[in-house]
Design a protein that fits this description.
about 500 residues; alpha/beta; Rossmann fold; pyruvate-formate lyase- activating enzyme; 7-stranded mixed sheet; 6-stranded parallel sheet; 19 helices; 17 strands; binds cobalamin
Length: about 500
């Protein structure tokens, strides 16, 4: 089978947890889920391409041209809940012109398997991982067409939507490395990126904790082995010129021994890669020391609040003292620390937001992100919202029956407009400190980094609207024009 995977651009949403300016400067990341799917298909012997239309700034028409050259037998898309309507728009356009089957997968399929394949243009859905489903589906498409044998497949038969069970156990360690050879690796970057090429990695699935605002809560923790992880890092370095990696695991440090083994392996192989990860705050000096020695340059900590009551209320299971100590220790070992904070969490008042901002300022953080607390699908907050309203906004959204609108936050006395304003204010207050700005300026390594940061700062101060609004013509991130043009040509004429 010839398989083409398309990553479509997406715009800013009013229900988005980030402010528009933050989303704009967030970065351009590789479509990692699609790269996993591509590697699985390639390993099963299928010729596969990924068109990262978002990063290459390709229009639907450009993408169609490229697809006509490749002549795929089947098209694939990744579906998140929030971007569902936009991805569906791309599917509709391409399906109409190419007339080939379409398969979709991704997080939204786990939440809304039936609704995700409801549109007539979508032929198949992959409910779980592609690992067994895609090779088996392609075999059936080539031979038997007995779809009832394909594990985890969602398909349509005589007007009915059928969902096959997926009884096979997934071993994440056996997954082939994501097919980064199909991606324009030179173009990716995130806001704090220091080195190119940059990529993202996922080394474990799930999270055993149960914070009430997070959808990963209590999901089965499934790590890749230290050797597999470092093999992937080495492949990134040698084959794809990668010098910086952001590890996107929900909590990279869930298993201390595993992280220590990963670090020892990096040190043993003398792998010179700068990497970052997301972590809970409850880690110790022993771990930080070896992480630094192995090239860890940044840790993104989930801090959430400067109010102990709110931390307890969202089930965070951390204390303010622990946060202070860990951030201090992180800095002592020479690792940059970023704090993720929530605004509008359960029990939030103007006072608790002020406390959070004061707390954030008192920690020696290098970066912060203030997100607006949102009832995301599968979170305990979402379950409460559905029970209370008797209606599931996200389900209606996926079915095209709901507008992009700000969702109610019955767990706080703050209105949505106040939450928006307070979030913006939090950024301004955190950044507008002479000493912080001076320190940030001294850390800048290149003119392009300087430009990116100054522009981001100025936009945050002067052109961010008081209340989030729709943003037509939204373009994420300022890329490198020369590199972009090179890859656009390659994508169209290769
Ligand atoms: C890396 C990442 C990104 C990267 C790359 C995008 C991507 N997914 O490739 C970037 C930064 C660009 C990104 C962007 C966004 N992301 Co993101 N992202 C992730 C992250 C951290 C890892 C994905 C990954 O590689 N997982 C490991 C692989 C093995 O699992 P997987 O992704 O589930 O993929 C398997 C199956 O789902 C299936 N599958 C997935 N896609 C497809 C496609 C086809 C055709 C098939 C057949 C199968 C299939 O097969 C895969 C392999 O087995 C996940 C969280 C997580 N830990 O999974 C969030 C996550 C997927 N992202 C999420 C969100 C919300 C977003 C954004 C909307 C954020 C934003 N506001 O901008 C955007 C939207 C992107 C889009 N086009 O829709 C949510 C989705 C929640 C939801 N309800 O839909 C998640 C779950 C994080 C979270 N907990 O909030 N993301």
């Amino acid at each position: 089978m010839k398989f083409a995977l398309v990553f479509n651009p997406f715009s800013y949403k009013v229900h988005e947890e980030n402010l528009r300016i933050v989303q704009k400067y967030f970065g351009l990341f590789p479509p990692l889920s699609l790269a996993w799917v591509a590697a699985i298909a390639q390993r099963a012997g299928h010729e596969t391409i990924i068109i990262d239309a978002r990063t290459l700034r390709l229009t639907m028409e450009d993408t169609l041209e490229r697809l006509k050259e490749f002549k795929p037998d089947i098209l694939g898309f990744m579906m998140t809940t929030y971007m569902f309507p936009e991805t569906l728009g791309w599917i509709r356009y391409l399906k109409k012109r190419l007339g080939i089957p379409v398969v979709v997968g991704g997080y939204n399929l786990r939440v809304y398997p039936r609704e995700s394949v409801a549109p007539a243009e979508i032929d198949f859905g992959v409910r779980e991982h592609a690992y067994y489903t895609i090779p088996s589906l392609f075999e059936e498409l080539e031979r038997g067409r007995k779809f009832e044998n394909v594990p985890g497949l969602i398909y349509k038969d005589g007007g009915q939507t059928l969902i096959n069970a997926h009884p096979l156990k997934i071993d994440f360690d056996k997954f082939p490395n994501p097919a980064r050879d199909l991606l324009p690796n030179e173009l990716y970057a995130e806001f704090p990126t220091e080195l190119r090429n940059f990529t993202v990695m996922v080394t474990s699935l799930g999270c055993p904790y149960d914070c009430s605002f997070c959808e990963a809560g209590s999901s089965a923790y499934s790590p890749r082995s230290p050797v597999t992880v470092v093999n992937e890092m080495e492949e990134c370095f040698e084959r794809h010129g990668v010098r910086e990696i952001d590890i996107f695991d929900y909590n990279f440090t869930t298993d201390k021994i595993r992280v220590m083994e990963i670090c020892s392996e990096i040190i043993k192989r003398k792998l010179n890669i700068l990497w970052a990860c997301r972590s809970r705050i409850d880690i110790d000096g022993e771990l930080l020391e070896i992480m630094k020695a192995a090239g860890c340059g940044r840790i993104y900590y989930g801090i959430e609040s400067g109010s102990q009551e709110i931390l307890d209320r969202v089930n965070k299971r951390i204390t303010l003292d622990r946060i202070r100590n860990t951030v201090k220790m992180t800095k002592k070992y020479g690792i940059r620390a970023l704090g993720f904070f929530l605004v509008g969490a359960p029990g939030e008042t103007k006072k608790t937001v002020s406390r959070t901002v004061r707390f954030a300022k008192s920690l020696d953080l290098d970066y912060t992100q203030f997100s607006k607390c949102l009832a995301k699908p599968l979170t305990p907050l979402w379950k409460e919202m559905v029970a209370k309203e008797g209606k599931d906004y996200w389900r209606e959204w996926v079915l095209g029956r709901e507008e992009d609108r700000v969702l109610p936050r019955p767990w706080t006395v703050l209105s949505n407009d106040e939450i928006d304003r307070l979030t913006r204010k939090a950024y301004v207050k955190f950044h507008l400190r002479p000493l912080f700005l001076l320190k940030a300026a001294l850390k800048v390594r290149s003119f392009s980094e300087f430009r990116k940061k100054v522009l981001g700062f100025l936009e945050m101060m002067f052109s961010q609207e008081k209340i989030s609004r729709k943003a037509d013509g939204f373009v994420a991130y300022h890329g490198d024009r020369k590199r972009l043009d090179f890859y656009r040509k390659l994508a169209k004429f290769k």
